[in-house]
Request: fold
Amino acid sequence: MLRLLYFLTLLTHLLKNIRQYPEELMSNIGKKSYEDSIAVFHSPVLREAIKAAFLTVPTRENFMKNVFGLTDRKAFIDILTSVMKPLAMLVARVWKYYQEKKLTALE
Reply:
């Protein structure tokens, strides 16, 4: 479950950054989102491998089309906006619960 929380944390940052930086390359957004969210949980070698993997992400247009079935940027931003707040609230609540129960260490 902790790895799922890591993924949801990364996803929260990714969606926020896609919306905040509409002209930035998706690979840069992915790297920034990773660095700002879950990179601290990984070794330096794994961090570099993950950042290198972000070089293979699709363009924003391909991402919109393949993941959301959209070609219209406004519709895409509207979907991101509607998803971001509930997702961020969920992630914050789960992180709080995990920290209270001392469940944040992978073993």
